[in-house]
Prior knowledge:
The chain has two domains: 2-43, no CATH class; 61-94. It is 57% helix and 0% strand. The protein has five helices and no strands. The chain has helices spanning 2-6, 19-29, 33-43, 61-71, 79-94. It is elongated.
Amino acid sequence: xxxxxxxxxxxxxxxxxxxxxxxxxxxxxxxxxxxxxxxxxxxxxxxxxxxxxxxxxxxxxxxxxxxxxxxxxxxxxxxxxxxxxxxxxxxxxxx
Length: 95
């Protein structure tokens, strides 16, 4: 479940999620193995010929933070704005 929830694409990689994991989820959650396998397959992203299956580039949160502040034309910024901006960029960088 941790892999499923923390993967950027929203699904566990086939090499990281094997038949034993399906069996453990079946035993723990009481969901049929077939239903779990269908849910995993449905959650996987299918890449097209135009799309590269490489991971997305990570976000340099601090660089983006500085860039946003440099281009903001206001003379004063509220503390809540800066904290919310920093939190949003931090969440984006952790993915």
